[in-house]
Request: fold
Amino acid sequence: MLQITDLTVRYDDVLAVDRVDLCLEREETLALLGRSGSGKTTVLRAIAGLVPLVSGSITLDGSDLVPVSAHERGIGLVFQDFALFPHLDVGANVAYGLRMQMATRIEERVAEALEMVGLDGLQHRRIDQLSGGQAQRVALARTLAPRPRLLLLDEPLGSLDPDLRHSLAGELKELLDQTGVPTIMVTHDTEEAFALGDRVTVLVDARIAATGTPAQIWTEPGSVEVARIVGHNGIVTAGVAGSVASVGGLRIPVTAPDGTTTLLIRPGAASTGGPVEAVVIESRYRGPDWVISVAIGGGTVEVSSPSPLTSGDKVGIAIDPAGVTTLD
Ligand code: ADP
Ligand code: MG
Reply:
């Protein structure tokens, strides 16, 4: 329903978004994941019509959005800091978008929107008397009340306490599923992207580096950058000869030319007690087991062990080839 092709945005000499293609299906939530400065907010601003494009097309339900002004696009954008009006109470904040639309039955619809986000009865509460989680839900209610065709959320949990974030991620997912409004949400937090996104698109330096379901991105990140962003650390270098990669005596069939390649050894694929030579770097208690970082192939891999091992000692590890993939 949303189709973005070849989107490029510049701020003077900064190339903020570079030839990005994206699509969004009906009722889908897409998580846009990337480090700070990778261009995530700019993609949202471009879709909302708040920044001029260098090139690219954006269509919603088959019609061209580019010539349409921001307030006529029917798109709801929730800013990272929520941008609530501090001098208006909760109800007046939620009513704001409806008044802009010159909607009727405003009071009823404000009450509906507040009920949807679980804040019924809080119409007259002052903004500075809300918790972070409540402020986030008021911002959502304000954006959802005019019934947008598309919802854009910029780091929706980013300004909340870490322990609140994970419980609210679940609530937000439920709310998005309930409303059925197609959503693009931006985050730098992989756990949040995986929890909320039906699909995840990873931005690296203004360009798309990967798109897929959370499981696809985690299992086959495709590149070292994406593997690191999703939190993998079992990244090692291996020599390749005749379509076989070798590292520490481990041999794994790969489709890569002779020379060297980079392998991702996924968590759980390596265990102690095997023929692959490695050196213990450190042991850390995780409970109930120990996590042992071992050096292999110019990188490190983590293995689980019932007891700590001595740093510097050689250790034999086993690696399940099914848990190994190549990276660009
Ligand atoms: P993200 O949301 O992923 O952190 P942004 O889209 O905000 O990234 O920024 C992408 C790049 O554009 C960054 O290099 C940032 O410094 C730059 N940028 C963002 N907004 C502006 C602006 N208004 N003027 C100039 N440069 C900007
Ligand atoms: Mg941003």
